[in-house]
């Protein structure tokens, strides 16, 4: 058999170009640059941590009511009850002091005790009240009268700078509230109709003691 003669140079060149165009590199063979283009987003900056809350100043002066109320067991009740009292008219340049805050706290006790006394008297005269509860209710009225007297004595002692008597009278105010409760606790069959009022009065009286202690007035 005779061997085929080699193709002419022009034909060989055409075949080479044809083969080159048909040989496409497989997918993924191209290298893609990972450099960000004009529209690439910079990495997000971490958010700064929130600043810690500023401590509440406990130095008497700018906010003496808040300062002293924060040292009681019932600070919210302390501040709300004091804010409801008529604020004292102080001479120009003079600021409220610890004794002034204590007087406002005692005024809050006096106002609530007057409301409680009226409520106890009304219940004692109400025909729908349990007959056995009338005696304890009348005792509550007497206890609230004693409470008002002891507050008056505490105010006089406070004005005189008598810390011992101030503390003793404030302790007596707290005891007067408990006396009203005891009349119902001794008789389990009685509904504690003064329980809610007595609980609030006990907290207010406790606040007075804490304020007097924090302000160095007892």
From TrEMBL:
UniProt keyword terms in alphabetical order: Signal
Classification via CDD domains: PMEI-like_2
Pfam family, one: PMEI
Signal peptide: 1-29
Entry-linked Gene3D superfamilies: Invertase/pectin methylesterase inhibitor family protein (1.20.140.40)
Domain Pectinesterase inhibitor: 60-211
Composition-biased stretches (Pro residues): 45-54
InterPro entries attached to this UniProt entry: Invertase/methylesterase_inhib, Pectinesterase_inhib_dom, PME_Inhibitor
Claim: Signal is one of the keywords in the record: yes
SMART domains referenced in this protein's UniProt entry, alphabetically: PMEI (SM00856)
Gene Ontology molecular function: enzyme inhibitor activity
Annotated region (Disordered), positions in chain: 34-54
Keyword flag Signal: yes
PANTHER family, per database record: OS12G0561500 PROTEIN (PTHR31080:SF281), PECTINESTERASE INHIBITOR-LIKE (PTHR31080)
NCBIfam families xrefs: PME_inhib
Listed name of the protein: Pectinesterase inhibitor domain-containing protein
Species per Swiss-Prot/TrEMBL record: Panicum virgatum
